[in-house]
């Protein structure tokens, strides 16, 4: 991987570089781990072989790989498909996440899932209505 990290970095150092608190990186690291793109060990975050391959992809290949990683990581369409009309309000998923996470962590996790799901064109999200949808997914 590119300098200066070569695919492995100290999380506090990354936080300083990005002007963040290290606690703000934990939800990102957790999502990356869940998707199979990163691991965390002894305060370091490192990219998996899958992430190294992903970094070499073009835009469309990244979208397909993101969709596959989301599906494999459990961020698939099952919850939206159960919703009437293949749509669901954001609050529905936040409430489910809050059973396992703090309110703040649930919001951050859902934001990350929404970003990845949109990028992978798994579903769309209307910011004003706070609605996830399997319809109107942009090509």
What's the helix and strand layout?
Layout: E1 8-10, H1 11-18, H2 22-34, E2 38-41, E3 44-47, H3 49-56, H4 59-72, H5 78-82, E4 87-89, H6 90-98, H7 103-119, E5 124-126, E6 131-133
Antiparallel strand pairs: 1-3, 2-3, 4-6, 5-6
Helix pairs in contact: 4-7, 6-7
Describe the structure.
- It is a single chain.
- The protein is of the alpha+beta class.
- The protein has two domains: 1-56, Arc Repressor Mutant, subunit A; 77-139.
- It has helices spanning 11-18, 22-34, 49-56, 59-72, 78-82, 90-98, 103-119, and strands at residues 8-10, 38-41, 44-47, 87-89, 124-126, 131-133.
- The strands form two sheets. It has a three-stranded antiparallel β-sheet with strand order 1-3-2.
- Helix 4 crosses helix 7 (103-119) and helix 6 (90-98) crosses helix 7 (103-119).
- It is globular, with a radius of gyration of 16 Å.
Q: Write out the strand line-up for the largest beta sheet, numbering strands in chain order.
A: 1-3-2
Number of DSSP strands? 6
Q: How many separate structural domains? A: 2
Alpha-beta content class:
alpha+beta
Query: Could you say which overall geometry the principal axes of the C-alpha atoms support?
Result: globular
Instruction: Give the count of helical stretches.
Output: 7
> What percent strand?
5-15%
Low-confidence stretches: 75-84
For the biggest sheet, the summary is:
3 strands, antiparallel
Query: What average pLDDT do the residues reach?
Result: 78
Fraction of helical residues = 40-55%
Please tell me how large the radius of gyration is. Answer: 16 Å
Secondary-structure element sequence?
EHHEEHHHEHHEE
Distance between the termini: 30 Å
């Amino acid at each position: 991987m590119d300098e200066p990290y070569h695919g492995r970095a100290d999380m506090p150092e990354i936080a300083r570089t990005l002007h963040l608190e290290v606690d703000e990186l934990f939800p990102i690291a957790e999502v990356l781990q869940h998707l199979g793109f990163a691991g965390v060990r002894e305060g370091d975050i490192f990219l998996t072989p899958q992430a190294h391959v992903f970094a070499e992809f073009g835009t469309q290949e990244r979208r397909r790989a993101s969709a596959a990683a989301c599906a494999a990581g459990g961020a698939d369409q099952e919850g939206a498909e159960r919703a009437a009309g293949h749509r669901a309000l954001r609050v529905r998923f936040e409430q489910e996440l809050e059973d396992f996470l703090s309110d703040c962590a649930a919001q951050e996790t859902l934001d990350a899932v929404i970003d990845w799901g949109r990028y992978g064109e798994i579903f769309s999200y209307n910011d004003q209505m706070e609605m996830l949808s399997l319809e109107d997914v942009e090509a």
